[in-house]
Input
Amino acid sequence: MRAVTFQAPGEVLVADVPEPEISHPGDAIVRIDATGVCGSDLHIYHGRVQVEQGFTLGHEYVGTVVSIGDDVHGIAVGDRVLGCFQTACGRCYFCRRGLFHKCDSSRTFGHGATLGSLAGTQAELALVPSADLVLRKVPQGMSDEVALFAGDVMGTGYHAVLESGMRAGDTAAVLGLGPVGLCAVQVAKAAGAARVLAIDSVPERLAMAESFGALPVHLTEQDTRAAVRDATEGRGVDVCIDAVGHPDAFDLALRLTRKCGTVQAIGVYAERAQVHMGLLWIKSLHVCAGHANVLGHVDGVLAMMSAGLLDPSPLVTHHMSLEEAPDAYALYDRREALKIVLTP
Ligand SMILES: [Zn+2]
Ligand SMILES: [Zn+2]
Output
């Protein structure tokens, strides 16, 4: 079968790889109908996250179940399904508390040996372990390209807002309007934020956030701190979501957030970074960080998308074939796309 494989930093190749086989009673095999290119894939593309040469990439997917192991009961052959980007065992200390993202034996699709050697979904077929936990039937009437957001990007935006403790009536700021930031804007609005300030330097992304009901603030052409002061009677926002994953963004988040507010770092951090601990301490800020518990949120996200409360479809800027993956990665790397959907 054809699959998108990592070769070297800046180089992916569509190659022939062996088809997956069921090896455990909880497995399913899904024929991929649509798969996304994600910001996390770019971390691999840049060599910031290391995977083995030849490893199949991708972790956002919608498809059709073609076979299941004996212990899979929630889905059947022929079902149209979407999947989450990681697996979980359902039995460990963390899974028993619903913290599926911290499962002791979790595996992440398309991230090489360090995250469980689970081949990615930018391929014609994908093996899905713990299929009952990882897969969901696509709700009636939902398109492939909308459904594939539930298992990663929209689930991450949902997690960012939920974990921040944002309440109805709060004012939130979202730093960084990539797909996760834009989804967080939608979730914050849907969860009752009175105002959402959306901060970025790309005009098209600011315009999209505005179309979702946010107040756009240009990072460099406007005074972001003044904009936040104006919107909050000088206090600062109740919740600030850092969807960038850069120390400068985190530092700005500390400054934009009101006393006793929450800074939510959902953007990916992989390195040591300096934090102004004095500012954090004197303002008594809450900080939460880490990747999303998408397995724990996927049903709620699907319900909100089905009800029309969340709609990621404006984020899909490009449709390309799987064979065009090298172009898709290069395009995404140039920040010319928000979400690219590949079709095998
Ligand atoms: Zn992703
Ligand atoms: Zn577990």
Q: What stands out?
A: The radius of gyration is 20 Å. The first strand starts at residue 2 and ends at 8.
